[in-house]
Specification:
Length: 123
Amino acid sequence: MLGGASNYLKAAQILGVRYPAYSQVLKVESITLLGFAAFSIYSGVLLLLKKRNAVKRTQLFLVSYFVFHVLCLVAVHGFDLTPEAGVRFEAIFGRTMLYSAIYTVIWYLYLSKSIRVQNTYSL
């Protein structure tokens, strides 16, 4: 998750000077990333305590985290960027979305299909 945050900081450095409206977007993204950090901690604690709804909450976190990265990639097109900047941002956000997709698929499938998870959380 912190890797995604560093990508946003790179993007902010590039966009912040040339596009003042991006500073507002960056604030929303930063608050959202903090929310995801809190949600991931909450999910982890639920899993650790073996709560009944832990798996569903964690799956919700995983899907929403991926959707957030997809929306960030789409949002890049909302700025009137130079072609060079557009390519750089698509690379930054596209890579983050790809990593998020891989992370989400692996963990979602594990939480859905694992017999160990089913036995541990009485699914």
